[in-house]
Amino acid sequence: MKLSVVIPAYNEAKNIRTTLRRLLNILEKTLTYPFEIIVVSDGSTDKTVSQAQKISSKKVRVLHYKQNRGKGHALTHGVKNSTSEIVTFFDAGGDFQAQSIDKFIKLLEVFDADIVIGSKRHPASVVNYPLKRRFYSRLYQFLIRLLFNLNIRDTQTGLKVFKRTVLEKILPRALVKQYAFDLELLVIARQFGFKKIFEAPVKMKYNFSTSSIGAKTIFNILRDTAAIFYRAKILHYYDRPHIKLKVKS
């Protein structure tokens, strides 16, 4: 088995080097199989790329394109350039403890799960999370359950583990490139019968320097969510492929 860790990054020059150092150190200690880390600079205009490239490890690759196209596009680009049977999404800001990755993969294997997702609302999670964000999260998850009947308590946490075979089927059908990409993947996964989705606890230290949410972001999240609902429930768009996912060998 081999693992690919895909990290989308937009103007993360302050955090990316520290995040990569910690991630490398922990993965080398906890994993007994090969892994690669793919940083995707999503049109960053700061020194994200140069900071990431200062990590002298053959296990780290840094990809960059000029135009900011959103988290969803960055993750899709990273998956296309990955080579492993298991793919993990990980935040560039270093909010989550990397020790969770090995635990998530073990859950994936033991339960033969399709996807394991981190959940800030799992009873065993330890999170330092602002009250305002907790309130927004609860409202959003209530809306998701109402619209999609999706029995998941937290769709937006940036730590997720997928079987590659699952990603190859659901990614080509995803259209959201920015705010509700995580939700769209889970909606498509259920649409295609991938029902073994497990929520696992996370340890999270909120990064106040990079994490923020305002009225514009809330509007965009709701807009993307409405678009997913329209495609899923009205157009039945996810019943047919969008594009083929071409994966580099």
Describe the structure in your own words:
The chain has 249 residues and is an alpha/beta fold. The chain has a single domain, classed as Spore Coat Polysaccharide Biosynthesis Protein SpsA, Chain A, CATH 3.90.550. It is built from eight helices and nine strands. Helix 7 (181-191) packs parallel to helix 8. The longest helix has 21 residues, at 215-235. The protein is globular, with a radius of gyration of 17 Å. This is Dolichol-phosphate mannosyltransferase. Residues 4-170 form the Glycosyltransferase 2-like domain. Pfam families: Glycos_transf_2. GO terms for molecular function: glycosyltransferase activity.
List the helices and strands and how they pair.
Elements: E1 3-9, H1 16-30, E2 35-42, H2 48-53, E3 60-65, H3 71-80, E4 86-89, H4 99-110, E5 115-119, E6 126-128, H5 131-148, E7 160-163, H6 164-170, H7 181-191, E8 197-201, E9 203-205, H8 215-235
Parallel strand pairs: 1-2, 1-4, 2-3, 5-8, 6-9
Antiparallel strand pairs: 4-7, 5-7
GO biological process, one term: protein N-linked glycosylation
InterPro entries: Glyco_trans_2-like, Nucleotide-diphossugar_trans
GO molecular function, one term: glycosyltransferase activity
